[in-house]
Amino acid sequence: MKQLMARMYILEVLPRRNQLQRPPVANVDQAIVATAVKQPDFTTNLLDRQLLALEIANIEPVIYFTKTDLLTYAEMANFDTLAAGYRKAGFQVILTREPFSDAALTAVKAVLKDKVSVIMGQTGAGKSTLLNHVAPDLDLATGEISAALNRGKHTTRRVQLLTVADGLIADTPGFSSYERSH
Ligand SMILES: Nc1nc2c(ncn2[C@@H]2O[C@H](COP(=O)(O)OP(=O)(O)O)[C@@H](O)[C@H]2O)c(=O)[nH]1
Ligand SMILES: [Mg+2]
Predict the structure, then answer these.
(1) Residue 8 has pLDDT above 70, yes or no
(2) In ligand 1, which atom is closest to the CA atom of 141?
(3) Which domain holds residue 139?
(4) Total domain count for the chain?
(5) Which residues contact 26 (CB under 8 A, 6 or more apart)?
(6) Beta-ladder partners of 169
(7) pLDDT tens column, 51-91
(8) Which residues contact 149 (CB under 8 A, 6 or more apart)?
(9) What does each C-alpha distance from 17 to 10, 20, 28, 59, 168 come to in angstroms?
(10) I need a labelling partner for 161 at 20 to 30 A (CA). Which of 40, 109, 112, 133 fits?
C-alpha cells in the first residue's frame, strides 16, 4: 500500500487572545461543555470546574447535556431544575429529552454559526457523536468507553478543527476527570 507522508511546518504563531490547557486550544470564541447526565456519572463539581476554567480563560461556555435518553422521567425533571439554575446564573444550556432532536441540533447549529468553537468534556460524554449528528458527513470515530478495552481503536486522539454548520469547531480528546491531572 502506498504511504503518503504529510510534512507540516509551523510558519507563524498568531497572537493569542485566549487559550486553554485542557483541551489545548487557543483563540476560540466559545466552548460547548458536553456533559453526560449518565455514563459517565454527572457531577456538578466537574461541570463547575470546566465553567470556571472557561471563565478564567475568557471563553464563553455553552452547556450541552448528553445521554438524556438514559434518564427516567423523575431524573429528567431533576435535570430540568438544574438547567434552570444554570440559566438563571447566565449560562446558555441545551437540554432536551430526546438526544439529537431537531430542537437540540438547531440550537447547536445556531451556536456554531460564524464562530470558532471547541467541544470539551469527559471521555465518553458524547462529543464526537454530537458532532456527527450535527454534520453526518464528518463520520468521526466514536465509542471511546468500550473501545478502551479494545486497545483504544476508535478514539479521538487529537484536537482537530472541523467545519461544521458554517463555523469551525475543534473536537477534542476527553479527560477522565479534572482531579487526576491537577
Ligand atoms: N445512550 C446514549 N449514548 C450516547 C449518546 N451520545 C453518545 N453516546 C454513546 O457514548 C459513547 C461515547 O461517545 P463519543 O461520542 O465517542 O464520546 P466522546 O469521547 O465524548 O467523543 C458512544 O458509545 C456513543 O454511542 C446519547 O445521547 N445517548
Ligand atoms: Mg470523541
Answers:
(1) yes
(2) 16
(3) 25-171
(4) 1
(5) 16, 18, 19, 20
(6) 117, 162
(7) 999 999 999 999 999 999 999 999 999 999 999 999 999 99
(8) none
(9) 19, 11, 8, 10, 17
(10) 40
Does residue 178 form part of some domain?
A: no
Which ligand has the minimum distance to the alpha carbon of residue 174?
Answer: 1
* 120 confidence band (pLDDT: 50, 70, 90): very high
> Which burial class, exposed, middle or buried, applies to 161 when counting CB atoms under 10 A from its CB (0-12, 13-18, 19+)?
middle
Question: Is residue 38 situated within a structural domain?
Answer: yes
Residues in the chain: 182
Amino acid at 144: E
3-state secondary structure of 89: coil
Any residues with Cβ below 6 Å from ligand 1, and which? 34, 66-67, 69-70, 99, 121, 123-129, 142-145, 156, 174
Q: Which CATH number goes with the domain that contains 165?
A: 3.40.50.300
| CB-based contact 30:23 (threshold 8 Å) | no
Contact 122, 176 (CB under 8 A): yes
Query: Which residue minimizes the CA distance to atom 6 of ligand 1?
Result: 126
